[in-house]
């Protein structure tokens, strides 16, 4: 099929390159000329495992452009995957979506195009997109649209750092549509994924025995709410683990044993119970805020989601409190942070806990050293005020420091020569913000091991 993808960020690029890998002809359109130039040269503007390899494998079926008139007119399917960042009141800013929908509407000219919204948007937005497309189409063509397009919602559930894996091997595909023709197009578009009939890339084999992938077909509003409800549930699952973690610390229980013990109950499940500094990234914060804002429009409150957000903020402050308890004073203390990205395997620092924690420590007079094995280059561009604190080598974070905090559990950090690094520190204090280091081993190496749950 001929596919157009609007927006070449984490979602758009991953969708485009995966569909091209499966044999579709894909044109990606983005307003950012620099991104388009990089992609046209075969290079990914984002750090995402296997992206470069998949881009190379799919190159002959992919085109990158800033020009909608190349991308839209011949497409059977147009995905919109532009950013929807938070406004100060918690609602998402839909200006990028509006502009993308206007441009698509202007250039639609085929017999039937399914316009699929993949951006995370408030309930009702797909109808709003439909009206923008319609107005734009009618202005340009000077006639009413007559079934040339239909809007569907196809929310995205990929995780950064595992984006391609989650796209090729999803748990489910959700499609919201009230048009049987659109559903048929989407079924055909995703057939290889739904039936898992494609030959997997050698570098990304199918995980275990994955059977057919369920397609959840809903009305538009339900598809939109599924996306918010899924993110809110995952966010509150993590916050729940962190809240129990706090209690575990006080009563002398081990939170890792507790989460294992509850996670083996298949009704609960083991994933997203990893305690620690909590969630960051571009979506959990934004989407929980949007859900609460949407509910408020209907005079409805969301106390559970609100509490999940509060617990998450508390975890970041706890890092500072824990260091203060240990070091008694932060002014003049040299503190290293390992990891800047909001999670491993990405260079994304949107709402990254490390940035908040670094600023809180600097505000209290600490001398902070920061390190990330992958995100440092992007950090220099995006956080100029913090650049003087950036360490080139991981040893610089430990050198003469009073404490080091593990903020992002990059595998590179787990494999460090911890014995040698202890000898560089003024006082070998390690705060394991992700519960991923071995307390016994580090204690034997001379560290004072701290976690956010007091063990
Ligand atoms: N990042 C993630 O892991 C996930 C994101 N989402 C949702 O998907 C949407 C996109 O997120 P990301 O891919 O992270 O965003 P992003 O910020 O990485 O990428 C958005 C891209 O759209 C381009 N763009 C903006 N306006 C445009 C226009 N009018 N025409 C053409 N291109 C335009 C931007 O230049 C940018 O390259 C958001 O609504 C987000 O909430 C959903 C699931 C996962
Ligand atoms: O809508 C989105 O953007 C996406 O948001 C999350 O994906 P992502 O933010 O990329 O990454 P996650 O793996 O969910 O991690 C989010 C944050 O939670 C933290 N986390 C995760 C799991 C856990 O057990 N504990 C925990 O603290 C991570 O460190 C990270 O900061 C969801 O997992 C995706 O399904 C969704 O599509």
UniProtKB/TrEMBL annotation:
It comes from the Bacteria. Its EC number is 1.1.1.22. Transmembrane segments: none annotated. NAD(+) binds at residues 30, 35, 84, 120, 286, 350. It is an enzyme of class 1 (oxidoreductase). Belongs to the UDP-glucose/GDP-mannose dehydrogenase family. This is UDP-glucose 6-dehydrogenase. Keywords: NAD, Oxidoreductase.
């Amino acid at each position: 099929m001929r596919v157009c993808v609007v927006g070449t960020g984490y979602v758009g690029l991953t969708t485009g390159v995966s569909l091209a890998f499966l044999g579709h002809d894909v044109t990606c359109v983005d307003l950012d000329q620099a991104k388009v130039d990089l992609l046209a040269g075969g290079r990914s503007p984002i750090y995402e495992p296997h992206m470069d390899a998949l881009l190379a494998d799919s190159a002959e079926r992919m085109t990158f452009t800033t020009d909608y008139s190349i991308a839209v007119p011949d497409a059977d399917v147009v995905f919109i995957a532009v950013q929807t960042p938070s406004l100060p009141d918690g609602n998402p800013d839909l200006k990028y979506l509006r502009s993308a929908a206007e441009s698509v509407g202007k250039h639609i000219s085929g017999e039937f195009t399914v316009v699929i919204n993949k951006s995370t948007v408030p309930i009702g937005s797909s109808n709003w997109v439909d009206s923008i497309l319609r107005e734009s189409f009618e202005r340009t063509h000077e006639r009413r649209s007559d079934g040339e397009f239909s809007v569907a919602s196809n929310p995205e559930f990929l995780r950064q750092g595992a984006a391609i894996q989650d796209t090729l091997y999803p748990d489910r595909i959700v499609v919201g549509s009230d048009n049987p023709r659109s559903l048929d197009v989407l079924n055909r578009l995703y057939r290889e994924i739904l039936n898992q009939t494609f030959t997997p890339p050698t570098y990304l084999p199918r995980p275990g025995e994955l059977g057919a992938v369920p397609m959840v077909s809903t009305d538009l509003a339900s598809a939109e709410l599924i996306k918010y409800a899924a993110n809110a549930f995952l966010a509150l699952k993590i916050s729940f683990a962190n809240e129990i973690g706090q209690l575990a610390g006080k009563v002398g229980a081990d939170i890792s044993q507790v989460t294992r013990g509850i996670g083996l109950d298949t009704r609960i499940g083991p994933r997203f119970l990893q305690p620690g500094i909590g969630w960051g990234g571009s979506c959990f914060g934004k989407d929980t805020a949007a859900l609460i804002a949407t509910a408020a429009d209907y005079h409805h409150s969301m106390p559970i989601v609100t509490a999940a957000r509060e617990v998450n903020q508390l975890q970041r402050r706890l890092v500072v409190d824990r260091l203060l308890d240990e070091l008694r004073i932060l002014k003049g203390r040299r503190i290293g942070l390992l990891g800047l990205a909001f999670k491993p395997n990405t260079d994304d620092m949107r709402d990254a806990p490390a940035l908040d924690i670094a600023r809180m420590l600097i505000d209290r007079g600490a001398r902070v050293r920061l390190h990330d094995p992958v995100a440092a280059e992007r950090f220099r561009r995006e956080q100029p005020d913090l650049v003087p604190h950036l360490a080139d080598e991981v040893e610089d974070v430990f050198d003469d420091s009073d404490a080091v905090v593990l903020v992002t559990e990059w595998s590179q950090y787990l494999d460090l020569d911890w014995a040698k690094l202890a000898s560089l520190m003024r006082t070998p204090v390690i705060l394991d913000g992700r519960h991923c280091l071995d307390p016994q081993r580090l204690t034997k190496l001379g560290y004072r091991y701290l976690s956010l749950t007091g063990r």
